[in-house]
Design goal:
mainly alpha, 25 helices
């Protein structure tokens, strides 16, 4: 079994061993390997290509370090009976890269690869390549930020693999990242600081979703620090810190891979969608019963001027976030809350500059049920009676007028032709 060395010791040691073992290695230098493998037509018995471009290898990170083929293919060290066996042992990258390998072995890719010999599990070569590995800061590298999503999607975007392995999920959801705010910033604007797969999921030690979900606000906070701070100050964030799994986190409102900007009509935080997103929790009867949350807030909003205007397409009107805030949402009893009684006039003033103290007086989410709001209930009943009577009166008037018109027509025909019998 190969002995693993820390990377800082492995490379110098290899460089020292090469001249000491020149008698053995001269027959096994890369030139000998490339005598066969530099042939584009070289294939295995199963038809797989065995071609290795010597120039591309020389430009790789290993080639620049002048590592020999046998430094990775250690089962060929000392081998002199060429050609070598058709099947070689799998390269152990951990001989030099022990820390990344140890992390990989404990992640969702390494565990199935080690425990079940799962051939679908991603290994070093699936992400970094094999013979043509480039530094991560090289724009041509497979793990360069703009290339990394496509590297991950080579497996996670494959519909043949979705659902086959625990945690892979739906390929369509993974591919949706490319059209997200993060993906578009990366591909169209060239912002390599935008979040990629590894920014959220990690690189070598990728945790299972059960562990990952608990860290989402903190992960998002790595880039969105001020927003993360605001979230923790709010009612949702403070409960999150106490381990409450019922409170919404970033992905509950913004989505996961398909995060879109608020100006996008399909975004979950677009003004048209905000009410539906908030109501997923605030109209949930089980959560309402558990935490004493009042129901009917969405219906009362949609029946208000703001809700009606929004349904008619006016995106400027107030929605849930306009009054309650976005990330630092606080209860109405908190003096820092935007809906604290003393702060309501200022909150309304964001849209209504001339709003005074009396502007916000009265109930906001008006329910028209008799037990909750007798005045609103009476007004609604009065309107129903008035409108019903008005429409009924118009209908009765039209019917009476039609009957009278018909009688007048018959009378006129009879006067013109006295012999016509009245039907």
């Amino acid at each position: 079994m190969p002995i693993r060395l820390k990377a800082k010791y492995a490379f110098p040691l290899v460089s020292m061993l090469i001249p000491l073992c020149s008698a053995v290695l001269t027959a096994q230098e890369n030139g000998l390997c490339f005598e066969c493998h530099n042939d584009p037509g070289l294939t295995s018995g199963t038809g797989d290509s065995l071609y290795v471009d010597s120039e591309r290898y020389a430009a790789s990170v290993h080639g620049r370090m002048e590592l020999e083929c046998i430094d990775c293919h250690q089962d060929l060290a000392g081998f002199e009976d060429w050609p070598h066996p058709r099947r070689l042992e799998r390269v152990d990258c951990g001989v030099c890269h022990d820390e990344p390998m140890s992390e990989w072995e404990t992640g969702v890719h390494g565990l199935p690869a080690r425990q079940r010999n799962d051939l679908d599990a991603a290994g070093c070569e699936d992400c970094h390549g094999s013979h043509y590995i480039l530094p991560a800061d090289d724009p041509a590298s497979r793990v360069y930020p703009s290339n990394l999503p496509h590297t991950c999607l080579s497996c996670h975007g494959d519909t043949r693999l979705e659902g086959k392995h625990e945690g892979m999920g739906q390929a369509e959801k993974a591919v949706s990242y490319l059209n997200s705010a993060h993906g578009q910033a990366l591909e169209k604007r060239g912002l390599i600081v935008s979040a990629t797969c590894s920014s959220c999921h990690g690189s070598h030690k990728i945790s299972p979703l059960t562990e990952f979900d608990l860290q989402i606000p903190k992960i998002c906070g790595n880039c969105h620090g001020p927003i993360y701070h605001d979230y923790l100050q709010g009612v949702h964030g403070s409960e999150y810190l106490q381990g409450n799994a019922d409170v919404p986190i970033c992905t509950d409102c913004h989505g996961e891979h398909n995060i879109l900007g608020p100006d996008n009509p399909e975004s979950r935080v677009n003004p048209r969608q905000v009410g539906a997103v908030c109501s997923r929790c605030h109209e949930d009867k089980s959560l309402s019963s558990k935490y004493g949350l009042p129901l009917g807030r969405l219906d009362s909003y949609l029946e208000s001027y703001h809700g009606v205007a929004l349904e008619l397409g006016d995106l400027r009107v107030a929605n849930c976030a306009s009054c309650h805030g976005f990330h630092d949402i606080r209860p109405s009893s908190d003096p820092e809350s935007s809906i604290y009684p003393d702060n309501l006039a200022g909150t309304c003033g964001n849209c209504h500059p001339n709003a005074g103290e009396n502007f916000a007086v009265g109930k906001i989410h008006v329910q028209d049920e008799r037990k909750d709001n007798l005045g609103a209930w009476l007004v609604k009943k009065a309107y129903v009676l008035f409108i019903s009577g008005l429409i009924g009166g118009f209908v009765a008037f039209i019917i009476v007028d039609l009957i009278a018109h018909r009688r007048r027509s018959r009378r006129a025909r009879k006067e013109e032709d006295p012999g016509e019998e009245e039907s």
